[in-house]
Amino acid sequence: MLRHVNNPFSSLLLTAVVSLSAGPLRQHHFVNQRKSWTEAQRYCREKYTDLVTINDTQDQNDIEQVTERGNPGDNTNRVWIGLKKTWIWSLDDSKYQYRNWEPGQPQGDGDCAFMNQEGQWHDITCSTSMHFICYNAQRYCRDKHTDLASVRNESENDQIKGIIPSASPKDAWIGLHRLWVWSDNSTSTFTNWKPGEPNLGANKLDICTSIDTHQQKGWIDDYCTELYHFVCYDDKLVLIRQNLTWTGALNYCRNNDMDLVSVFSEDTQRRVENVTASASTPHVWLGLRHSCVVGLWFWVNGQTLCYEQWAAGYGTGEEDCTTTVRSGAIQTGDQRWISLPETNTNNFICIK
């Protein structure tokens, strides 16, 4: 039987039976305006969170229902989603936006990039054989070094240019290639292309993705300048890139009419993993708290742990309560949960 303890978090634990669940983590919004993909992206980021991301069949079904309800009946048969063919670095340095294309490049010759002896970049088909520059062909670099070279600024571009031999061949692969990436910078794993799609191939024009709302409701690659309706999403999870203690993080969320996130299902875990991808700390606080009084973990929204994603050696044994209270965080590497002293400082996730 639980007894009253003079502890600020004991009342939180004892009131668990009256707390409510979090509900859907994302809301989808059909926008009955015709815009280019870039204009639609800007609108979604200003009004909501971003253009919609589709991660599985359930997301796909939800988007189809939203487009059916929102379709104005004006013979609209294409709707933008957030997928775009984007130049990214092999090493996943998506935050580095430096480019040094030769004038007129890329011109649609392929989805990979090489550097010439002058330090300028060209696109070319990825099956072409040529020398390459490693950082520290991709598979070889990852086995022998770190990865194909990323070029973050002009200084690095000059350094790599100096490595390319003056004698033939005068070109070398760098780590820039073009992949399908979502507007929120998450990579595309789930796909739902219509038969024969995507079919635009290598192209110097920007290529984005729309959904065919008639006939077979699959994805189509399309020129980003086309004017279509679109679907935005509003994410209830917010990554705060400030380094606070667990209590500081809890107070921050609640002072802004939110709460630290509680992870009560595999779907919530997946959403949290997507959000933590852009964290600036190796651990990110969750709304997970340990009670030394009763020896168990609980969520700040009052739910007990039914779903768990502990890293090996965490969450199942006794916690060290001699110095400070322990709280739960997710590791940005393997996305597993660990126990940390609540006085550590980390990024954290609030839920609206």
Could you explain how this protein is built, in words?
InterPro entries: C-type_lectin-like (IPR001304), C-type_lectin-like/link_sf (IPR016186), C-type_lectin_CS (IPR018378), CTDL_fold (IPR016187). It is a single chain. The chain has 352 residues and is α+β, with helices and mostly antiparallel strands. It has three domains: 108 residues, Mannose-Binding Protein A, subunit A (Mannose-Binding Protein A, Chain A, Roll); 90 residues, Mannose-Binding Protein A, subunit A (Mannose-Binding Protein A, Chain A, Roll), CATH 3.10.100.10; 115 residues, Mannose-Binding Protein A, subunit A (Mannose-Binding Protein A, Chain A, Roll). Helix content is 19%, strand content 31%. The strands form three sheets. Strands 1, 2, 3, 4, 5, 6, 9, 10, 11 and 12 form a ten-stranded mixed β-sheet that branches. Strands 13, 14, 15, 16, 17, 18 and 19 form a seven-stranded mixed β-sheet that branches. Strand 17 and strand 18 form a beta hairpin. The longest helix is centred in the N-terminal third of the chain and has 14 residues. The radius of gyration is 24 Å and the shape is globular. 30% of the residues are buried. The N terminus is likely disordered.
